[in-house]
Design a protein that fits this description.
Blueprint lengths: L13 H6 L9 H9 L2 H8 L3 H16 L6 H29 L7 H17 L3 H19 L6 H21 L14 H20 L5 H19 L11 H26 L9 H12 L14 H18 L14 H8 L2 H24 L6 H9 L7 H25 L3 H18 L3 H18 L6 H19 L9 H23 L4 H26 L3 H4 L5 H21 L9 H19 L4
Length: 611
Amino acid sequence: MVTTPTRPTDRLPPWLAHVLRAQRGPVPWNAVLRGALAAAPLLVTVLSERPTAGVPAALGAMLAGINDRPGSRRASVARLGLPALAGAAGLLLGTMIATAVGGGRSLLVLPAVFGALGLLAGALSSTGPVASACGTQVMVAVVIGAGMPLPEPGPLRALLFLAGAGWLLLLRLLLPSPGGRGTGPYRLDGEREAVAAVYEAVARLLEATGGPGARAGRAALSAALDQAQDALAGPRLRRYASSAAERRLHARYAAAYPLAEAATALAWAGVPLPARVVEGPRALAAAVRNGGPCGPLPAPARAEAGSRALDDALLRAATAFDRPAGAQPGRRGIRSYAAVLGRARSAAGREYGLRVGLCCATSTVVAQWLHHAHWYWLPATTVFLVKPDLGPLASRVVCRAVGTVVGAAFFGLLALLVSGPYPLVVAVACCGALLPVATRHFAVQTAVVTVLVLSLVLLGGEPPASWSRVVESLLACATVLLVGHLPLPGRRGHTVRAALDTAVGAAHRYLGHMLDAPEDHTGRGALRRDAYRSLAAARTAIDLSSAELPAVARHSAGSERVAGALERLIDTTTACAVQLHRPTAGLPRSHADVLAAHLSELDRAWAAPSR
């Protein structure tokens, strides 16, 4: 029996183990370069002897840099552009609020306004990752616009903010990706790599079939399909793919769907496969990267339904690679405004929105009562801290406190060694370059952002405030920690239950379609993607909740059993779909029995947490 060595973090409480955990991976040098170049508008304003005009531009670039994650250029338009528009609107609204209350000081009006805005922004933030970035930026910008004393009028601040974020987005769209292979238009570099990663994930899943890594391989394949789908489904000038290279890439992505289905069915069967089965998917991955034909593929081995489906999928893929049809993009279903508003009004949206509103109102009251020159730091910090996608609550509070102290100490030392605006511009450029790597751990990101913000404060004409930054951040940590554990009306854990409810509904739709219309491969593929994507979102919510302090984590007890039963049901549905991929095929009795058993298991697991 092979035993897994125990890591030191395994003996720690989950919330503390999360503090010591960081994302790994190669350094994104292209994002590092963009982050450094994002300080160019600030340098222009300093050279023009208008450094205060560069502060909103640098803030826009900084917030866009936090959202500058790996992916395709097309997907970055929404990921960077929409939050930038929300931030510009928030900055304009903040200056209008400050003017209305007479200089941004009020123990009653400002907390009430910020609390109401936090309630709305928090509820909308619960509808998706881009909406979360928009909600955060609009609240941060509203607070900064109301509190930061800059001479520029509100409309100009908003335009400068947009200019800074737009400059970073322009760099993202125009600069070629490093390591490009020189085949096809450079604008499709990210899309090509995302599609190639799908075929690589298929090969790794086939390689792991029959072993302990099969489950992780299936999850990796699902994530690769999600990323490729997002990369190809971003905004475009025309409704359909607009070039031969783009149509070819969409056809190759569509050809990966049957391969993924067959590989999932083989992994479900649990029988180890010969090593040569991975040669075909890896040859297809190489063809996607170099833009050429797939070349010879391994001979078929048609032993059982899963192997036959894999061979048929390889044959269809070879046809698509050598003579690509004008396939249309595999777009995700666009949610209507009514669906988005419905999710924002759900129990999960109301719970998160209420906590954001309470945090904003409480921190604003404390900040106004202290009557500090930098009072806006406290509510702006709470907006970042209350975001659940930054990790468990206790974990992000600890990271924020440590990162702020380290960043403020470093900036205090820097201020003693240098003087003048140009060293501050260099500091902002260095922080922008470090930001893409710093986002892998919240404490490191906090330290980098602290140095950047303190540099902008000096450039904006305000006095040095390293010590004040530490005090304000610690007060924000205490506020968010307190509000995050308040027993609000109703039950806790709405986010996990809402994610599981969505995943269960997607799984039942997938199962029903597989049984009612087994010949509809296109519709089944879309429903399968929705089922696996919803399952991944539910598991993310469960992992986040389980790493909270016990007082919060106990509200999602039993959710892992539901997710496990749901995963087995979706995998079994995929295996059954492979058995029914031909109109004359019938569902074997063994598969039907397993499917019925998993349905019963899901019903029992789903009912257990509600007792």
